[in-house]
Amino acid sequence: MNVLSIEGLHKRFGSQTVLDSLDLQVARGEIVGLLGPNGCGKSTTLNIVCGLLEADAGQVRIGGEPVSLRTAARVGLCPQASALYRDLLPAENLDFFARLYGLAAIQRRRRVDELMQRFELTAHAGTRAGRLSGGWQQRLNLAVALVHGPQLLVLDEPTAAVDVQARLALWGLIEELRDGGMTIVLTTHQIQEAERLCSRVALMRSGRVAAMGSVPELLARVPAQAVAVVQTKDEAATTRRARALGWAVRPHANQLLCLLPQASSLREVVQALDGGEVSSVSLQPVTLEHAYMELLGQPLEG
Ligand SMILES: Nc1ncnc2c1ncn2[C@@H]1O[C@H](COP(=O)(O)OP(=O)(O)OP(=O)(O)O)[C@@H](O)[C@H]1O
Ligand SMILES: [Mg+2]
After folding, report:
1. pTM of whole model > 0.90?
2. Could you give the number of structural domains in the chain?
3. Ligand nearest to the CA of 37
4. Mutate which of 13, 50, 159 to test ligand 1's pocket (most atoms within 8 Å of Cβ)?
5. Is residue 288 within 8 Å of 219, Cβ to Cβ?
6. In whole angstroms, how far apart are CA 169 and each of 39, 124, 159, 165?
7. Has residue 297 been placed in a domain?
8. Ligand 1 centre from 142 Cα, in Å?
9. Confidence (pLDDT) at 301
C-alpha cells in the first residue's frame, strides 16, 4: 500500500488556482522529490498532506486513511520556514515539539537524547537554536520532524541556504533515514539533490504533476543522446545552422543548448557547426536539468 496517495487535489487562494488536479503516489521506503518553479504549488501540497491546510477537492490518504488529526501524528514536517524556537536550546526545542505530540515524560527524555546523539547535536547542546549555523539549524529541524516517530517525512527544501559541506551532511542523514525504511517526500530547487536522493521525481507546473518518473525515466524523455553547449557571437546564424542539422536548439543563459539526436564526438560537433561565429563548444551528457527544461518548458531557477 502507498504511504501517501494524492488524487485530484484542488486548491484555490481567492481567485488563484494553486493546485489543479494534482495526483501523486508514494510507496513505502521511497524518496519522492517535487521539483518545479516558484509558486507552482509544492509547499501548498505538502501543507495539505500535513493537515495544515485544507484542500478544496480531492483525496489525500496517509497509509490508506484520509488526512485527519490521527494521520497528522504519522507525518513529520520540516517546513520551508524554520519552526524552531530561536531562544531555546536544541534539546529544549526537541522536548517542546515532543510535548506537542503528547509524548510522556520518560518517552520524551529518551527520544530527545536519542535524536541529540544521532544528529550529533550534543556538540552544540549549549547553543540556542537562533545562534546555530544554517546547517545545524536544518539538522535540528530534521530531528524535530522525527521527534514523534513518524512514518512519512515531509521535507520542504531541506538544504536551501546551507553551505556545500552542510548540504552533503544533510544528504547523508536523509539517506540514512531512507536506509532505515523511512518514506520521504521532499521539495527542492537543486538538481543534484534530486538526482542523488530521489527514487522518483515529480516535475510540477501550474499546480499539477507534468511528468513523473525515476531520473533515468525522465532523462529518456529528452530527445537527445547528448547536449552540446555552444557559445556564439551570432546566435541567429548558429541556431539556423544547428537546426539545419536536425538539432533542437534551446537558448539558455547566453549559450545555446543543442540537443544531439546521435552520440557525436566534440570534433564532429565542431565540424558540423562549421561557423566562424562559434567561440566555444562543450559536450554534456543529458541531465535532469535538461529533462526539467524540456518537460516543463522553462529553465531551472537559481
Ligand atoms: N496562504 C496563502 N494565501 C494566499 N496565497 C497563497 C498562500 N500560500 C501560498 N499562496 C500562493 O500559492 C501559490 C503557490 O505557493 P506555494 O508556496 O505552494 O509554491 P511553491 O511551489 O512552494 O513555491 P517556492 O518554490 O517558491 O517555495 C503562490 O502563488 C503563492 O503566492
Ligand atoms: Mg515552497
Report:
1. yes
2. 2
3. 1
4. 13
5. yes
6. 28, 16, 10, 6
7. no
8. 22
9. 56
